[in-house]
Amino acid sequence: MNILIVDDEPDTREEIVYYVNQYGRFHSCVVCYNALEALDLSIKTPFDIALLDIEMPGMNGMELAERLVHLFPDIRIAFITAYNHYAAEAFEVNALDYILKPVRKERLFKTLDKLGVEKTVENGLLFNMFGKFTAWLGDERVTWKRQKSAELVAYMLENRESPIRKEVLCELFYPDQEPKKALMNLQTIIYSIRKTLGTHPDGRIRIEYGGHHYTLYINDAWVDVDQFEKLLQKARDLKDAALLEQAISLYKGDYLEEDGWLWAEPKKVVLQKKYQFAVQKLSELKKRK
């Protein structure tokens, strides 16, 4: 799910982005200051949802909506405006909702539900690794039976598709136990993870065992760290401020900082440097405008 937010008022724009991030069910959130910038970005990025201001300099939100529908016939649009006299015209361009400013979080969440976000993510598999590690199956947050289960999934996500010897996992997760007991506990946790996430040989996430190694494979799952790094690389190639802002918006805290797992420290440092680079680069691009 990709969402486009277009508003020329900085305070309102930041508020909407903050609430959308709290809603937390989008693969990417693209923020634009005006309609022309949004159209330019839409050539590169397909959008599922658009939240549009109406009165903007140059092209207004109504015209932008018409062009977006032409580009993406299935796009779902809602207008966010300070004026209520546009309502009839808004629904003529197939808008599904109309929100008056100032925006309230509860009202915006209802709009996002109305735009079909919950239905779209019903079977989605999402992992958040910035701040605190969380996993979502559709709109339901995964509840781990053991804290070790969450940590093992996070560790294997960091090392996905790389075989990890069972002895390495035992030493990392059960350093004070004798090998036989540690292996038994490891096998119990992996069984619990498979059951919790519904893993199976043809599933989108699976843990395979062979040659004394465990390997995690994921398919069609969204991971915030992956998205951050992809957007950052794309922004570097295109020198695009909007993509940098999009990447920065995903960084909701240092990598797994609330979990305090020592093995995560090296990647945490690498991602901190990438985030600092993004912030600095965005500042430089804005100064050039």
Question: Keyphrases for this structure?
Answer:
single chain; 289 residues; alpha/beta; 12 helices; 12 strands; 49% helix
Oligomer: single chain
Question: How is the largest sheet built, in terms of strand order?
Answer: 2-1-3-4-5
Content of β-strand: 15-25%
Number of helices: 12
> What summary fits the major beta sheet?
5 strands, parallel
Bin the helical content.
Answer: 40-55%
Q: What is the terminal separation in angstroms?
A: 30 Å
Overall pLDDT confidence? 86
- How many distinct beta strands? 12
Alpha-beta classification = alpha/beta
**Radius of gyration, whole Å:** 22 Å
Coarse morphology:
elongated
Regions with little confidence, pLDDT below 50 for 5+ residues: none
Could you state the order of secondary-structure elements as H and E? EHEHEHEHEHHEEEHEHHEEEHHH
What does this structure look like?
- Strand 10 (205-210) and strand 11 form a beta hairpin.
- With 289 residues, the protein is an alpha/beta fold.
- The relative contact order is 0.10.
- The chain has helices at 10-23, 35-42, 61-71, 87-92, 105-114, 117-120, 147-158, 166-173, 179-197, 224-238, 241-250, 265-288, and strands at 2-6, 28-32, 49-52, 76-81, 97-100, 125-128, 134-137, 140-141, 164-165, 205-210, 213-218, 222-223.
- The chain has 12 helices and 12 strands.
- Helix 8 crosses helix 9 (179-197).
Topology of this structure?
Elements: E1 2-6, H1 10-23, E2 28-32, H2 35-42, E3 49-52, H3 61-71, E4 76-81, H4 87-92, E5 97-100, H5 105-114, H6 117-120, E6 125-128, E7 134-137, E8 140-141, H7 147-158, E9 164-165, H8 166-173, H9 179-197, E10 205-210, E11 213-218, E12 222-223, H10 224-238, H11 241-250, H12 265-288
Parallel strand pairs: 1-2, 1-3, 3-4, 4-5, 6-12
Antiparallel strand pairs: 6-7, 7-8, 9-11, 10-11
Helix pairs in contact: 2-3, 7-9, 8-9, 10-11, 11-12
